[in-house]
Amino acid sequence: MCGIFAVIGTSNNAPQLTFKGLSDIEYRGYDSWGICFSSDDLFKTIKNIGFLPKTFPEQLSQVSLGHTRWATHGGVTIANAHPHSDCNNELILVHNGIIENYLELKAGLRKHLLKSETDSEIAIHLIEDEYSKSKDLSSSVSKVFSKFDGLNAIVVTNGTKIVACKKGSPLVLGKLTDGYCLASDPNALLPLTDKLIFIEDNQMVVLNDKLTISDLKTKKEIQVKFTKVIWDYASSTLQNYEYFMEKEINEQPKVIETILNNSAVAEKIAKEIKSAFGTYFIGCGTAAYACLAGTYLFSKFAKKHVNFSIGSEFNYIEDYLTPKSLVVAVSQSGETIDTIEPVNAAKAKKCKIVAMTNTLGSTLYRTADYKLLLNAGVEKAVASTKAFIAMLSEMILLTFMVAGKKQAGVEVLKKSALEIKNILKNANLLDELVNKIAKQEHIFCLGRGLSYPVALESALKIKETTYIHAEGYAAGELKHGPLALITKGTPVIVYVPNDETRDSILANAKEVQARGAYVIGVGPDNNPVFDFFFKVKDCGASSVIPHTVFAQVLAYKLALKKGLNPDKPRNLAKSVVVR
Ligand code: M6R
Fold first, then answer.
1. Total of domains in the chain
2. pTM assigned to the model
3. Can you tell me which atom of ligand 1 is nearest the CA of 575?
């Protein structure tokens, strides 16, 4: 998704810092980029489509704005890439979000020369109109920003000052020894500084030789207070791995261990779940599957009903929420707008909010009443792996806490961490399978009960990294339609744990085998129906964890076999901050 980085300071290295900042948020996904800096009272802009180059030519400047764009309004072209300038190249802007009423606002810009198809560019021309009258950048930016509908963040400069405003789109300020930097993601700032301020909605930041932050509505100044953030930069680099996805898969046993060593917040949340009049787990994509797994876990092991909804659908079924409802919003990034919007609506109804997130200081983290950090470390591969395992681990722990059997939860999680290590040690056993199925166009993943969310997650991982059409199904649903798609050789992965689903899922495996499918069995015991078997030891309630790791490794290996970069799937972004 789009990324912003901006610097103002007394050193002349602003363009280099901007280039480095954009490189640190590359993982979020983008299709074009641009960096602008002031040079001899003029702005110089370098833009291109595709990825950032390995190096950036040395340029001397104290002010610079940079952007990585993920196209929404207008195609992937150099003209549409940010930064955008006013008609005279005196004012420069970068923008994240969508100005929903941009067509209406554009109507007043007939005298301006628009060079792109973006909603972003109209912002800088509107600011130009205001600035030509007042020569006051802060008031011009604030006036124009307040006209925008939608969720946006903008950063504007006239070469001596930077002004930024945000509403619903993240923006973080960092303090340098000789200036300030702003970014849409703290990961771009943390290599430079540990002193951060997470800018709140409807606030304006003005940076020149001093810093002011004010409320856009009341115009009142806000006390500036930097938070010191502890962060291990080395852990966010590739180290000896070729791809982040491989590194993040390998970090998973450690992720579980960290969760087990930090369970105090989970204890508090378990109490809230016990006393709530209705608990709702919401999330998107992989996080949604962790939420769905939560409903099976709570029902089976805590005998408790909890509700599940996809984040982007929760808005439409929120009418029954009351102040006694508890909403547990699950999001790796803590910035997914499809999760944050329904959270805001629930908050307006006075529900209590729990954020289960991997990102300290994220919008979700700041919005929530209870903050359950996943502590998985930065996740950079677009296809989520270790964050999902962290979410599942927290779900298991919460379930057993609510059931009053925390130690049993701890034991199954420890088992699953050991089993992940076994899977990683035996990963080469998957090579034969990878060779067999890499050229297939369709793969089906089947599970029942707790293995149903695993089947959904497996299919999502395979889709993202390999572009093979993969479908996850509740195995019982197969005969209600999808069975028509099974033909000779279609790979079908079946999850067969040692639980109440075993006999039924084996029967489903036989059904697909009878239609010619190539059956891939995953679980503790081999069975004659399997054409390929991958052994995963029984970990009880935690079997979902090693089963998922099987699928992660398979998806990763399939991507490599197909010559694809598993870290950067086409069309996808790491953090989805638009609707
Ligand atoms: O940051 P979030 O957990 O809120 O992200 C939600 C989804 O966008 C995310 O899980 C997505 O589905 C991943 N690419 C899955 O690998």
1. 2
2. 0.84
3. 1
